[in-house]
Amino acid sequence: MARLNLLLMLAVVASALYLVHTQYLSRQLYTELDRSQQEARRLELDRDRLQVEKRAQATPLRVEKLAKEQLQMRTTTPAITQYVRPDGSVIPAVVAPPPAPPAGPVTKPAARAQR
């Protein structure tokens, strides 16, 4: 009977130690899960912030400003557009208009002479 009691006592102690070890591992895993969830929330906030910054950086006005300032680009006009034929020759899009006569006061010498 003493042997049975001793054997049962060892089984209870082993069971208790296993329970303590299992609870310890459970708490470690819960702590790791909580840290992972916090990291996921932080990364989600960073992603949202970066998307807002991306939208702010990609506004048409900003893109046009950077294109003009940093890349020295300009808007297209028919005067600077050229078309290239398959043989490699270049055709201007619009022939330059002839220069306009100087604008000055309009006088009618014939009307003054009749008076």
Task: Name some characteristics of this structure.
about 120 residues, mainly alpha, 2 strands, about 5% strand, rod-shaped, two-stranded antiparallel sheet
Describe the protein's topology:
Layout: H1 2-57, H2 60-69, E1 82-84, E2 90-92, H3 109-114
Antiparallel strand pairs: 1-2
Question: What structural class results from the helix and strand content?
Answer: mainly alpha
Average pLDDT, to the nearest integer? 86
Low-confidence stretches: none
Note the overall shape.
rod-shaped
Distance between the termini: 153 Å
Largest sheet: 2 strands, antiparallel
Helix content: 55-70%
Radius of gyration: 43 Å
Tally of extended strands? 2
Q: What's the order of the H and E elements?
A: HHEEH
SS field, number of helical segments: 3
The largest beta-sheet arranges its strands as 1-2
Task: Estimate the strand proportion.
Answer: 5-15%
